[in-house]
Amino acid sequence: MSETVNATADGTPAAAGNGGGPDRPAGAASAGAAEALAARVTGRVYAPGTEGYEAARTGTQLLDRHLPAAVVEAADADDVRAAVAWAGERGLRVAAQLTGHGLGSGVGGGGATADSAEGGRERREGGAGGGDAAPAGILVTTGRLGDVRVDADRGTAWVGAGSTWQDVIDAAAPHGLAPLSGSAPGVGAVSYTMGGGVGLLARRYGFAADHVLRFDLVTADGRLREVTEDAEPELFWAVRGGGGAFGVVTGMEIGLFPVARLYGGSLYFDASAEPGVLEAWRRWAETTPEELTSGVSMLVYPDFPGVPEVMRGRLVVQVAVAWSGPPAKGPALVEPLRSAGPVLADTLGELPYTESGAVFDEHDDPAGFRGRSVLVDGLDAEALAGLTRLAEEAPFMCVVGLRHLGGALGRKPGTANAVGHRNAAYALTVITFADVRDTGDRSRLREEAARLVSDRAVGRSFTLGFGPLDAAGVREVFDPADFERLTRVKAEFDPGEVFHSNRPIPPRG
């Protein structure tokens, strides 16, 4: 039995729809849910309005946070199993969270159901009570499931659901090995991999999902399943690229790769003085070998204290480079890029993979943001010029990002999975920020950016878009036949839609 952090309650479960019965206050129902769950698990359980609840439900994404009737801080896989079984018996929805970077819409409170640019809405929030929204559903946090075990002889690692990529990187590095981690090592390794995962070594080795050997997964019936190519092959296919719609992963076994050092970092160009920087990067990127992964971020830097004076008020293009071949060959590969425009800053150099977060140097502070993704099979100078003008003229902070894909990302993996659109050559992400809620002008700007590349669009990225998607948007993440297969897997393993997912898959027979 765990410690419960709540008020006195009678233990009656909350109704599935609104967190309370017709004659019962939602707060009492939430307290009852926490009290009943605490009798089933060993980790702590938090109810709305109590100490620890706000911190437990809040991740990096601050828009449309989870508003659950109870938060279960799982101590082990048995806690996850018990929480899912308890919720499933009562028709309650379940979400899982470690860092919350990829949160689409929160569980509970009737959260946003569609991207605001596509006719959706943002849920009003007002502290623990969510304004006029009632807490509902269960949130399982996985931070205590953080074990990482490396088998250097096999070149593999067991990664608990509470592990960030930095945890895995640090465990693998003494063996001269590295995982297929992303540009932001503070992101949860498991959720990133379930969505596909395009990282610093992606053009050389492929998607992170391509190199999963096993998942331990709790399904809607409360069973903890070992999911591999031989055991539960449909689930194994679906979870690698299809995300968290099929259960809660408690851990995974992944392949590691012989990369100890990189040549990497960023060049920061003054695009106010040379608006053709993006086109110069595109031409250069298309000449680079698969061992080199690169991307750009473009924004107008604010004229604030703390921002380097040379960048204040300028449109700056950051070109991030990760070369995993022999480090000594890196400078010559990057040299042609230096003529793209005036260089304001240069952080390129040889570094250990343990410092790979310095390549893109992405900010990781909690914030409210939304991001529109588009996968394209090519880019042209006209579209890149349009994106440059859009970023420079935006009336609020707007970050335009591009990732060079191709290479191993375009090849079929040894074991098929649900990752979509392997024919994409680039990924576009346009991010805007908001303190309280998304707004129409922000969503319209993101859609305007998407229209600039619409003639080359092949779909959307699972992990490089941020915020909720409606049904049509989710379909765009996957190849059509794969989406239909995913709906059949959902119907088999979660017909009652117990699991609340960032990219929801409907069950279909």
Polypeptide structure, described:
By secondary structure, this protein is an alpha+beta fold. Helix content is 23%, strand content 21%. The chain is built from 13 helices and 19 strands. It has helices at 26-38, 53-57, 77-89, 165-172, 189-194, 202-205, 233-242, 277-285, 330-334, 381-393, 440-452, 471-475, 480-493, and strands at 4-5, 45-46, 70-73, 94-97, 138-141, 148-151, 156-160, 212-218, 224-227, 248-255, 261-270, 292-300, 315-323, 343-346, 349-352, 369-376, 398-404, 426-433, 457-459. The strands form three sheets. Strands 11, 12, 13, 14, 15, 16, 17, 18 and 19 form a nine-stranded antiparallel β-sheet that branches. The chain has a five-stranded mixed β-sheet with strand order 1-2-3-5-4. Strand 6 (148-151) and strand 7 form a beta hairpin. Helix 7 (233-242) packs across helix 13. The radius of gyration is 22 Å and the shape is globular. The relative contact order is 0.13.
How would you summarize this macromolecular structure in one to three sentences?
The protein has 13 helices and 19 strands. By secondary structure, it is an alpha+beta fold.
Keywords:
single chain; 509 residues; 5-stranded mixed β-sheet; 13 helices; alpha+beta; 9-stranded antiparallel β-sheet
Binned, the helix content reads 10-25%
The main sheet comes to: 9 strands, antiparallel
Q: Tally the helices: what do you get?
A: 13
What is the molecular shape? Answer: globular
What's the β-strand tally?
19
Low-pLDDT stretches are 6-26, 110-131
Radius of gyration: 22 Å
The whole-number mean of residue pLDDT values reads 90
Portion of residues in beta strands equals 15-25%
How far is it from the N-terminal to the C-terminal residue, by CA?
A: 39 Å
What structural category arises from helix and sheet content? alpha+beta
